[in-house]
Write a structure and sequence with these properties.
globular, binds 2-(butylsulfanyl)adenosine, 7-stranded antiparallel β-sheet, alpha+beta, 6 domains, Helix Hairpins
């Protein structure tokens, strides 16, 4: 860096320009493509160099410099921006029939026969805040919200802080940089960022956001852009307003061009040859809706051929060439009429809201989880409150918003129970949870039976909540092993069972006992913190139940994907004599396990893995460490990305450690690394 002082004014100007290009490029790799090419340290170094040069030569600071993305002074009010082409809204189709009606209408208006095919571009409908960003000669100059469609708010300094918004357009070889282009798209917050933000807000005692869209809107429309800068917002482009100097022919071309200029553009998208393909896409997107990082509320279907847009025209509010195919709503407003407490397998007591029943997506919802008492406190939810409930996929319905404006003053606070609501034993507070201290609490046993018999566990058909409850109430099942000792006469005596159904249940239990894959058994017995995935990892690693049972804490900890909490749970579980007794009782009843094929014991834990080092190692040089990892089939990389499998953290680690934590990439210290090497047969 010292040599910089020697730079002449002209040279400094040139270097500043160079640095901006470089930093913009690496921003793009990181925030748009999610595939960085340099380490965080290298990036920080470039950035620092630019900051220093700009401090030395403030006359060269421009608003599109990467250094200007960090925030700006607060303003008193938003300026107004008139959109050159109004930002319209879309008409909604609520189901497949309405999408077909749209297609029929398009054909009618175009004078095409009903059996003609119209090509459509189908895209996700991102549930965020629409925004228009103007570039002049490739440079970011203006950003505005949709507003009333004609006039929006000037959010230029705020949008500048969104890292996936280019400050300069990339220069694609096959496309000119237009003198002016208005890029339209959605400002969004990822679902995981939304959860994180809400957690932080709650911790600080501030008001939380009801959903990612409100969070994105609340973060963008800030008079103080420094606040926007702290919220990790994203931008996905879905169209354009005015563009000068380029003639696009199709919507698909527009999206491709936007990607070439350096934006994220609608994905996954599909160019559909006709409405049938659109319907296919609609079904698939609705099915996969939960798995996307952004909240989606439907799809948008656009006639792909832009010439036809002019022919079709628009109504006062919306274009005739596009429609939103909305997904079934997952939220409804209702009232909490009572609260009950449910005791889980681990004894944790969950408050459950009893609701005035509402229908959401074809299912009647009359209960919603309140998670725990920290959640109750954070939401300040009370009996009698009007609330918005959400049901998403298979998850238990939950309360997302309390509508406090609807309070009458008669609402009652929700208090934690003083005694276990099922067995009357004492209750202890552990973190956010209240737990029944009685390990033989019948409620815990009922839940354990339900879990044991469930489809992914032992898969015993015919044992649901009602039957499990009867088993426990009648004293037929006092521990999980008793299930294997049930007799047909026991079952026949239960209400709701007859000869045939009792026989079926006995047969299902017999069948479930034989040749059980090890992982299913490990999952079924309910070791705390061992879910389906961990059970599979353990089965693959240890192969036999005996070996796992005797595994040490360190041995467990050395396994990829097993952290201290899981390792401790496993050791403690097998140390408890009651657990061992019950398991032995199961084997006596004829349980047999199909033991997994273990991977070759000597097999390298580094095989196929991408490893990153940060900080100094005391036992060897970086080069030696790299050599060892590579000789064991691993790959060493300099920067941390989502694709990194492991980060080895030495002394005084750099920003790679932070990045690993942000991305949830596994980290180990030097001792852990040495232990892995030993496992692979290296003497260290
Ligand atoms: S195209 C003429 N494409 O949905 C309007 N909009 O309800 C053209 N939206 O205001 C809009 N994802 O904010 C389009 N892939 C997508 C979209 C999308 C989300 C939003 C947009 C618009 C609203 C219309």
């Amino acid at each position: 860096m010292a040599e910089k002082k020697k730079l002449s004014r002209e040279e400094a100007k040139k270097r500043i320009e160079e640095l901006r290009e470089l930093i913009n490029y690496h921003n793009y790799r990181y925030y748009v493509l999610d595939s960085p090419e340099i380490t965080d340290e290298e990036y920080d170094q470039l950035f620092r160099e630019l900051v220093e040069l700009e401090e030395m030569y403030p006359e060269f600071v421009t608003p599109d410099s990467p250094t200007q993305r960090v925030g700006a002074p607060p303003r008193k009010e938003f300026g107004e921006v008139r959109h050159s082409i109004p930002m319209l809204s879309l008409q909604d189709a609520r189901n497949e029939d309405e999408l077909r009606e749209f297609d029929a209408r398009v054909k009618r208006q175009l004078g095409l026969p009903p059996d003609a095919d119209v090509e459509y571009m189908a895209e996700p409908k991102f549930d965020g805040l629409s925004c228009e960003i103007v570039y002049e000669n490739g440079r970011y100059v203006l950003a505005s919200t949709r507003g009333d469609g004609v006039v929006g708010e000037d959010v230029t300094p705020n949008v500048r802080t969104i890292k996936s918004v280019p400050m300069r357009l990339l220069n694609p070889p096959d496309l000119p940089i237009p003198a002016r282009i208005e890029v339209r798209g959605e400002v969004l917050m990822r679902k995981d960022e939304f959860e994180k933000l809400n957690m932080e807000l709650a911790k600080r005692g501030e008001r939380t956001f009801a959903n990612p869209r409100n969070a994105a809107a609340g973060s963008l429309r800030q008079l103080d852009p420094n606040i926007t800068a702290q919220r990790r917002l994203d931008f996905v482009a879905w169209g354009i307003g005015v563009v000068e100097g380029i003639e696009f022919k199709k919507q698909s071309e527009i999206l491709e061009a936007l990607e070439k200029y350096g934006f994220k553009a609608s994905r996954p998208r599909k160019a559909c040859r006709n409405i049938d393909e659109v319907i296919q896409y609609y079904r698939q997107m609705e099915q996969e809706r939960e798995s996307f990082v952004y909240e989606l509320d439907g799809i948008v279907v656009k006639v792909n051929n832009l010439e036809l847009h002019d022919k079709l025209g628009q109504t006062s509010r919306s274009p005739r060439w596009a429609i939103a195919g909305k997904f079934a709503p997952r939220q409804k407003t209702t009232k909490i009429i009572d609260v009950v407490y449910s005791v889980g397998r681990s004894g944790a007591i969950t408050p459950v809201a009893i609701l005035e029943p509402v229908e959401i997506g074809g299912v009647t919802v009359s209960r919603a989880t309140l998670h725990n008492f920290d959640f109750v406190k954070m939401m300040d939810v009370r009996i009698g409150d009007t609330v918005i409930v959400q049901r998403a996929g298979d998850v238990i319905p939950e309360i997302v918003t309390v509508i406090k404006e609807k309070r009458t003053g008669k609402e009652k606070p929700i208090e934690p129970p003083e005694k276990c609501p099922v067995c009357g034993a004492d209750v202890v507070k552990e973190g956010a949870y209240y737990r029944c201290v009685n390990i033989s609490c019948p409620a815990r046993l009922v839940q354990s039976i339900i879990h044991f018999a469930s489809r992914k566990a032992m898969d015993i058909e015919g044992i649901g909540e009602k039957t499990a409850r009867l088993f426990v109430e009648r004293g037929l099942v006092k521990d999980l092993a008793d299930i294997f000792y049930l007799k047909k006469s026991d079952i026949l005596a239960l209400p709701g069972f007859a000869e045939k159904s009792a026989q079926n249940l006995i047969e299902a239990i017999e069948k479930a006992k034989k040749d059980v894959p090890l992982w299913r058994f490990l999952y079924a017995i309910g070791i705390p913190n061992v879910g389906e995935y961990t059970a599979k990892v353990l089965a693959e690693k240890f192969g036999t139940f005996e070996r796992l049972k005797n595994a040490s804490y360190t041995e467990l900890l050395s396994i990829e994907g097993i952290g201290p909490e899981i390792a401790r749970s496993i050791v403690e579980f097998f140390r408890e004599p009651r657990n061992i007794q019950v398991i032995e009782k199961m084997f006596k009843a004829g349980l047999t396990l199909k033991e997994a094929e273990t991977r070759e014991v000597k097999e390298s834990p580094f095989a196929g893995k991408t490893v990153v080092f940060t900080g100094a190692l005391s036992s060897m040089t970086r080069d030696r460490a790299r050599e060892l990892v590579e000789s064991l089939g691993g790959r060493v990389s300099n920067s941390v990305s989502r694709k990194t499998d492991l980060v080895v953290v030495g002394e005084n680690p750099g920003s790679k450690f932070r990045r690993a934590q942000e991305l949830g990439v596994k980290t180990i210290n030097e001792d852990g690394f040495l232990e892995m090497l030993r496992q692979a047969g290296v003497e260290v």
